[in-house]
């Protein structure tokens, strides 16, 4: 699932300054889409993308607020040097509105699609354009086959990855842990013992929220996926996401119930917000904030949650908040990592659209975006030195580690009607009291 960030004034100011500096590097910041300085030394890296001066490329995504500002900043020099005007629109209703636009004949040139299942739907319907030769070569150079398979349909590549995230993290307060004498758990049993210790101290150990507008429910699906990877292993996980086993297989029910031992435990949740049912009305953006006020101690959420903390919150091992790896359950299943990301898919294949799609798959783009901050990518050309945020740095190390057992977000892999439909809704029903068997049976029935 994509990240929706809250605007924070300090970052907006920084982004504006960054835009001005970036524009100055190419000679002008007042004429977006003009390549008047295209022959400057700073523009030499963009020679392969030139020849489209004055053309416009539209992009639609779920990325909003400060993250959208950073996107604009990340390709500012590309625009100045090539003369291509990139018009990005971010929406909180992206998953619902993109099909409406596409089916209505109003598709954007490019879309950053975080659900391979949704991408497949468009590809199967003949709506997407296969990547051009240049984009294909760039994607194969910079991304592993495991990543490219998520945007490959029937042997054809329809998009290169863009941003990525690691979801197998639990956020906490190093200061609180030090004051209380708590230690970071490295096993599931230790995690539960720690939760009991925190609960006994009078603090609700966990805070969580699954409200996310039209996408309400998705944070709970991440819990199930992370737990299933740890209890059943990656092979069973793959069978589940492709419907090789039914959605209500006993192994899935076991994972849901184990997740429920935390999420539906009134002793454990929902610190700072209320009881179990408050999960459904607490926005995922706000869900971890009670850690900063001592009202809860643990919040399972992805690396991108680094962007959600209140202004002035220091992220780091010696900071106000940090995160640890969501512990393994069965050591025999290895150390799996759940993650996600967006794929740059094209609904039009005009030359300027292909140029932008190719650039976004390049190492130059990955490093340009990383330098701005708070961003992760599995791009092999990403220099770790350009990644400042400690959680992002840890995430990139995990993604680039050949030994990592990585699996993509399961709900994003499933057909959109299930993964972004009945699965999300089923998790809301489950949090609100519906039993495991009924919820899983309902989702299984919808797959047909």
UniProtKB/TrEMBL annotation:
InterPro entries given in the database record: Bact_solute-bd_prot1 (IPR050490), SBP (IPR006059)
PROSITE patterns membership: PROKAR_LIPOPROTEIN (PS51257)
SUPFAM superfamilies listed in its UniProt record: Periplasmic binding protein-like II
Key word Coiled coil present: no
Pfam family, one: SBP_bac_1
Transmembrane segments annotated in the record for this chain: none
Gene3D superfamilies per record: Periplasmic binding protein-like II
Signal peptide: 1-25
Keywords carried by this UniProt record: Signal, Transport
Entry's family note: Belongs to the bacterial solute-binding protein 1 family.
PANTHER family for the chain: ARABINOSE-BINDING PROTEIN-RELATED, OSMOPROTECTIVE COMPOUNDS-BINDING PROTEIN GGTB
Name of the protein this chain belongs to: ABC transporter substrate-binding protein
Organism, as annotated: Micromonospora globbae
